[in-house]
Design brief:
Number of helices: 8
Structural class: alpha+beta
Strand content: 5-15%
Number of domains: 2
Order of helices and strands: HHHHHEHHEEEH
Oligomer: single chain
CATH architecture of the largest domain: 3-Layer(aba) Sandwich
Number of strands: 4
Strand order of the largest sheet: 2-1-3-4
CATH topology of the largest domain: Glutaredoxin
Length: about 160
């Protein structure tokens, strides 16, 4: 089996068709990288290595070009993640206002550290450098929901909503 057939056989037709359709919207193929990554993640929940290679071949660019974009953005996941993604802001403002205590509470209760997924596959815990809510810190996101002024008293009530 040649490389091209292998690539196409491991890509869902919806993924392939959507990526091909967005390419024509961009003058330069590199401009389509982030949208292609978002499409893959929409269908799989993360972006596996073989799809980095597929996107690169489709856009006629290097895999390093695609990987650089994929690893730059904190909302593109390069490993399998849990059903709920917890992003905890670890900026200086959140740090000063109690980030460390919140992280320690989540670590204890969920039995995971940054970069890990809980054994029941419900939660993945990740740091993020800023969520843009410094005036309401500490802040975290679970999936697309933002929570401000979190503390060790209310953190587990928030987590319970996602179990």
């Amino acid at each position: 089996m040649d490389n091209k057939n292998y690539l196409y056989n491991n890509v869902k037709s919806k993924e392939r068709d959507e990526i091909i359709s967005i390419i024509k919207n961009y003058e330069h193929p590199r401009a389509a990288i982030i949208e292609a990554l978002k499409i893959v993640q929409k269908y799989r929940g993360w972006v596996p290595d073989n799809l980095i290679f597929f996107i690169a071949k489709l856009l006629n660019i290097t895999t390093i070009d695609v990987e650089e974009v994929a690893t730059f953005y904190s909302h593109i996941f390069r490993q399998k993640v849990g059903r709920n993604i917890i992003l905890i802001c670890d900026s200086i403002t959140c740090y000063i206002n109690g980030y460390k205590e919140i992280y320690n509470k989540l670590k204890l209760e969920l039995k995971i550290v940054f970069g890990q997924t809980s054994p029941d596959k419900r939660f993945t815990l990740l740091p993020v450098c800023c969520l843009g809510n410094c005036d309401k810190s500490p802040t975290m996101m679970i999936n697309k929901d933002t929570y401000n002024n979190i503390n060790i008293k209310n953190i587990m009530n928030i987590i319970e909503m996602y179990k």
